[in-house]
Specification:
Layout (H helix, E strand, L loop, with lengths): L2 H16 L5 E2 L1 H12 L7 H5 L3 H13 L11 H7 L2 H9 L2 E2 L17 H21 L6 H10 L2 H9 L1 H14 L3 H9 L3 H11 L4 H9 L14 H16 L15 H7 L3 H22 L6 H17 L2 H12 L1 H13 L7 H16 L4 E5 L7 E8 L2 E7 L26 H4 L11 E8 L2 E9 L10 H36 L19 H34 L3 H28 L7 E4 H16 L6 E5 L5 E4 L1 H17 L8 E7 L5 E8 L6 H5 L18 H11 L3 E7 L3 E9 L2
Parallel strand pairs: 1-2, 9-11
Antiparallel strand pairs: 3-4, 3-7, 4-5, 6-7, 8-10, 11-12, 12-14, 13-14
Helix pairs in contact: 2-17, 7-8, 7-14, 7-16, 8-13, 8-14, 9-10, 9-12, 10-11, 12-13, 13-14, 14-15, 19-20, 19-22, 20-22, 22-23, 23-24, 25-26, 26-28
Length: 749
């Protein structure tokens, strides 16, 4: 296979795995589930079954997170999660996982090589049990149950690889076995990524606890190169050691064929002795055998057992037909929600201001729910008049300001933080006196517009069918909350527009009036321009995150309930765009609120080497062509090494991209002056260079001279931000066609 072909396969794997909603289970596990769910088999404990199978555990964590139920890292109990979910939801979750295709032979394919699916499941159990044993041996170590779950889920990226691309998985496993190396190493050679990265992405997508996601990502990393400042990084070291012990015991097969020897430095890091390792190795097979029995991995004639259980389950399911019909009728009610959502969202574009949105919402509400007069008011600030829209009929919708009540809050206390339907006559006299339209108070209803856990306004409308109000409670709540999220974003956008207008004054200040650049800035003294930009970015991100999360959550719920393909496609487009906005917000947050610098004496050579490797990895290159010269006296600086490595990697990447073929040489020099307490690092390329107008904005967040849609242009902005946080300074000089020189001053004390 060619390198280009490998990259295509890698992209296909990433795309396929990104679309996965669950993994796969073995027929024996499915038989256990069917027995417990449909045949009332008291011998099968669902919580224990879930805690023994990676696919079941991953699916339960993902579904519970969507329901707002998260695994506690202080008390990580799957049983507690299961107890909080409705029994019907637990059953639906377990039955939604796909069955492994190979019923007769539990192997990826009869013509394929590599570990069987049974071997993978057994390996996960072994690593989980070993991780729990290790944590119990450690003094003041991480929670043993959390380590168990991290071990159980450590190879979900590999399980996803099997499901998405079984033939590619088999070739990788065969090559790893023939070379006697790790599966991960062969993946990296072919694709530039491995199952740990894929597993990390799934962990985040499925809302795993951060410590478990970290362990999935780093369980093959060398502890010597993993900073101990990362929270919960020891869990990754525990899983790595457990993985080695499981392979040493020959429990299952994960496709890893390198030497299985426990690393002594990792043992010291975890506080383990040789005797501890021997005890774990001695006790592990019995513990894993218990898990294997629970999952039915050792039962003979598994396909026949599965078929019998499936038949009996189908018989019982026939008796549930009436219940399913009732559920189908309930789902049809969601059509009204979808139609409202579709009309409201499709009628919004970038030209809509806050008044425009309120009028549009009122119009859609009156039209879709066939109400009488409607009025919406927003509490967008702590004082001042309220933005309001009112409609007497579909052709008469107006926007206006109304005054707040003098002696009460605009929103009744009982609906400030929770949804309810009130009669407005006791609460809205102050509003009705200011409106020119008439409401029939006896038939009118008042509901809150909740964005997250707070009401940003309220909606009053005259209901033509008041006797049926409870039938529409859920529909009204869903539509009002979705609209509130959009309106909240518009409120935030209006507020950010004011920030931007103030910020533009700073940008337009003549350069001679800005503070002059002197020597590298002292720690804690970044430029006023960057501070102002960071403050605006942080404000924008915090304001937008809450309503955006509400939109994403509501759309996801609607998409799951929808059966019409066209409607599902529309909802998916909404969700995809919301996720893209979330990624942009994350970039803003990383720029605005970076981790506080932790400076220490650091080798300049080491910083340059690590940054070069990081830049090459990000760009998919084997290495970067660099010429490094470090003069005497410039060999150490006092900085946060991780932040400076990240900054230098971004600068190196820009330098590489300045060459047409990404292969030009980058000259790097480090020098110091005895009387000054900083080291000067110069990074020069002979690439295309920059025009003056491009150079002036090169370090602005989201600025890029590339075609729109290529990248968001945060590289140099991050670099300057982190360098300034470390008491340094960055300067760029460039000429079109003559290359670019980036000068960085870093403190030595």
């Amino acid at each position: 296979m060619t390198a280009g072909g490998d990259r295509i396969v890698a992209q296909q794997v990433e795309l396929a795995i990104g679309e996965l909603d669950n993994l796969w289970i073995l027929p024996s596990v499915a038989a256990k589930i069917f027995s417990a769910v449909f045949l009332d088999d008291s011998k099968t404990n669902l919580s224990e079954l879930i805690e023994s199978d990676a696919a079941l555990c991953a699916q339960m964590l993902s579904v519970s997170a969507k329901e707002g139920i998260y695994l506690s890292e202080s008390n990580p109990s799957i049983k507690a999660v299961v107890r909080k979910l409705p029994a019907q939801k637990v059953q639906e979750t377990l039955l939604s996982i796909e069955l492994a295709e190979d019923l007769q032979v539990l192997r990826i394919g009869t013509e394929l090589q590599g570990p069987s699916k049974k071997d993978l499941v057994l390996h996960n159990c072994a690593v989980a049990c070993a991780a729990e044993f290790i944590a119990e041996k450690m003094e003041q170590g991480p929670d043993a149950q959390l380590c168990y779950l991290a071990g159980l889920l450590h190879d979900i990226g590999k399980m996803a690889f099997v499901k998405a691309m079984p033939k590619s998985f088999s070739r990788i496993a065969e090559e790893a076995k023939s070379q006697g190396v790790s599966f991960s190493k062969v993946e990296q050679t072919h694709f530039g990524l491995d199952h740990t990265i894929l597993g990390q992405r799934l962990g985040r997508k499925w809302s795993f606890p951060e410590s478990i996601t970290l362990a999935i990502w780093l369980h093959h990393s060398n502890p010597a190169f993993t900073t101990q400042n990362i929270p919960n990084v020891k869990i990754a070291h525990v899983v790595q050691t457990a993985n080695t012990i499981a392979r040493k015991c020959g429990l299952g097969d994960s496709g890893n064929y390198e030497s299985a020897e426990v690393d002594e430095s990792t043992m010291q890091l975890l506080g383990l002795s040789d005797e501890d390792i021997k005890r774990i190795i001695s006790n592990l097979p019995e513990k894993v055998q218990q898990k294997s029995g629970l999952l039915g991995l050792d039962e003979p004639q598994t396909p026949a057992v599965f078929s019998d259980v499936a038949y009996l389950s189908a018989v019982k399911l026939a008796g549930e037909k009436n219940k399913l019909s009732a559920e189908a009728q309930r789902l049809r009610k969601t059509t009204g929600v979808f139609e409202f959502t579709k009309e409201f969202l499709s009628g919004i574009d970038q030209r809509c201001d806050l008044f425009c949105l309120t009028k549009h919402f009122v119009h859609c509400w009156q039209k879709n729910f066939q109400t009488g007069p409607v009025c919406l008011y927003l509490v967008s600030s702590e004082d001042g008049p309220l933005v309001t829209a009112a409609a007497e009929s579909l052709s008469q919708t107006t926007a206006l300001y109304v005054n707040r009540p003098d002696d009460a809050d605009p929103i009744p206390d009982s609906i400030i933080h929770q949804f309810d339907i009130l009669n407005p006559q006791e609460h809205l006299d102050w509003l009705f006196k200011q409106l020119s339209i008439e409401f029939d108070i006896r038939q009118s209803k008042l509901i809150p517009l909740l964005s997250g856990s707070r009401a940003i306004g309220a909606l009053v409308f005259e209901l033509r069918y008041p006797a049926d109000i409870e039938l529409f409670r859920e529909t009204f709540q869903t539509c009002a909350s979705m609209g509130a999220a959009v309106l909240d974003m518009s409120i935030a956008g209006t507020r950010q527009q004011r920030y931007a207008e103030n910020f533009s004054e700073l940008l337009s200040t003549p350069k001679k009036e800005l503070p002059k650049k002197a020597e590298p800035s002292q720690k804690g003294e970044p430029s006023s321009l960057i501070e102002a930009l960071a403050e605006m970015a942080a404000g924008a991100a915090h304001e937008l995150n809450n309503p955006l999360s509400v939109i994403s959550g509501r759309v996801q719920i609607l998409e799951q309930r929808e059966s019409d393909d066209e409607k599902k496609t529309t909802l998916k487009q909404i969700r995809d765009n919301a996720e893209e906005i979330t990624r942009i917000i994350n970039d803003l947050m990383s720029f605005a609120e970076p981790t506080e610098a932790r400076p220490a004496k650091t080798s300049v050579q080491l910083l340059l080497d690590e940054a070069s490797q990081l830049a090459a990895q990000r760009m998919g290159l084997e290495k970067i062509n660099m010429d490094i010269s470090i003069k005497t006296g410039a060999d150490e600086v006092f900085v946060d090494s991780a932040q400076i490595v990240s900054s230098l990697a971004n600068i190196f990447a820009n330098a590489v991209e300045s060459y047409e073929d990404n292969s030009g040489i980058i000259e790097v020099s480090a020098d110091s002056e005895p009387e000054k307490d900083f080291v000067t690092v110069r990074i020069r390329d002979e690439g295309r260079g920059m025009e003056p107008q491009t150079l002036e904005k090169a370090v602005y967040p989201f600025f890029s001279s590339k075609t729109a849609g290529r990248k968001r242009g945060m590289g140099l902005a991050y670099a300057q931000r982190l360098i300034q946080l470390n008491g340094g300074r960055l300067d760029i000089q460039s000429q079109p066609g003559s290359g670019t020189t980036v000068t960085i001053n870093l403190p030595t004390a």
